[in-house]
């Protein structure tokens, strides 16, 4: 049994992880309101089980694992998953972009939605959430080599879907790149 931790320390660390947790949930379910419900359920479970968490260990991985398990439990209960392989639901949520970056992001989101669930989960954990391969493998409940393979296949499939052969083909164009890089210089 672990030592009881001060509620403020646990709460502070939990709150700092919420944006990453929400982003992961959105990437898995695709709908903001469903993602928010999933994050809320995850936080409620984590709060109820906080005595089982050992401070000093990886809370982010612990929370991501709870979220992932909660999602799969909900999917099993429903017995079916809503597929959006053609991006119809995503298009209804998206606004028409005002600039090229928004268009690129829409293209990327559509491409990400076309990936198999395991590949999408792996690339989001490693590429977007900043987890190491080892942490992503632990969260996903698979071998290290499996997670590396899923990430590699996801990257290749994204390049294929987006028809990219060079990294300069995606993101700001030559005209807007200098403008966007100056915006972050203080």
UniProtKB/TrEMBL annotation:
SUPFAM superfamilies: Sigma2 domain of RNA polymerase sigma factors, Sigma3 and sigma4 domains of RNA polymerase sigma factors
Limits of the RNA polymerase sigma factor 70 region 4 type domain: 106-158
Record bears the keyword DNA-binding: yes
Keywords from the named record: DNA-binding, Sigma factor, Transcription, Transcription regulation
InterPro entries tied to this protein: RNA_pol_sigma-70-like, RNA_pol_sigma-70_dom, RNA_pol_sigma70_ECF_CS, RNA_pol_sigma70_r2, RNA_pol_sigma70_r4_t2, RNA_pol_sigma_r2, RNA_pol_sigma_r3/r4-like, WH-like_DNA-bd_sf
Any single Pfam family the record assigns to this protein: Sigma70_r2
KW Transferase (keyword) present: no
GO biological process entries: DNA-templated transcription initiation
UniProt GO MF annotations: DNA binding; sigma factor activity
Top-level taxon in the UniProt lineage: Bacteria
Domain RNA polymerase sigma-70 region: 18-80
PANTHER family linked to this entry: RNA POLYMERASE ECF-TYPE SIGMA FACTO, RNA POLYMERASE SIGMA FACTOR RFAY-RELATED
Family per similarity comment: Belongs to the sigma-70 factor family. ECF subfamily.
Name listed for the protein in its UniProt record: RNA polymerase sigma factor
